[in-house]
Amino acid sequence: MSDARSYPDRPYLAVSAAIVRDGKILVVRRARAPGHGLYSLPGGVVEVGETLKEAVAREVREETGMTIEPVALAGFREAIVRDADSRVERHFIILCFAARWRKEPVLNEELDEARWIDPAELANLSTTSGLADIVAEAFDRLATHPST
């Protein structure tokens, strides 16, 4: 799949949300490349003029139909994919926010499944790199930022 983000001349800034409800985390399975078939957190690329919190709320709403409350930055991941010739095919810097849910998900064409799981269940799923660590950090951040 080729698009404007393939073989970039710079990294792309993206956001994701570790959304917690009743001690469970929302994971989604990607329906297409990149990450086809892998469980991950909903999110996407930051648009010009958006704050990070606006971007994560928009991306989650676009992908799942959910309304969320971004609470605190839970960490970051670098996603660098190289092709067979070691050229950088994709490069994303992903800032993950701990978030609380406000409305149930309704998936779009980018996702083919969403489920609320206990974080311990992540070990049994094929996930994007570092997902369990970022989820643990999100739970820590939410514990230090009680609901208002």
| Biggest β-sheet description | 7 strands, mixed
Tally of separate helices: 2
The helix/strand order is EEEEHEEEH
Unreliable runs, pLDDT <50, ≥5 residues? Answer: none
From the N-terminal CA to the C-terminal CA, the straight-line distance is: 43 Å
Helix content: 10-25%
Shape: globular
The tally of beta strands, per DSSP, is 7
**Strand content of the residues, in percent?**
35-45%
Mean pLDDT: 91
List keywords for this structure.
148 residues; alpha+beta; 7-stranded mixed sheet; 2 helices; globular
Topology summary:
Layout lengths: L11 E10 L2 E7 L8 E2 L2 E3 L6 H13 L3 E15 L5 E14 L9 E7 L13 H14 L4
Parallel strand pairs: 1-6
Antiparallel strand pairs: 1-2, 1-4, 2-3, 2-7, 5-6
What does this structure look like?
The protein is of the alpha+beta class. It has helices at 52-64, 131-144, and strands at 12-21, 24-30, 39-40, 43-45, 68-82, 88-101, 111-117. It is 18% helix and 39% strand. The longest helix has 14 residues, at 131-144.
In short:
The chain is 18% helix and 39% strand. The protein contains 2 helices and 7 strands, in the order ββββαβββα.
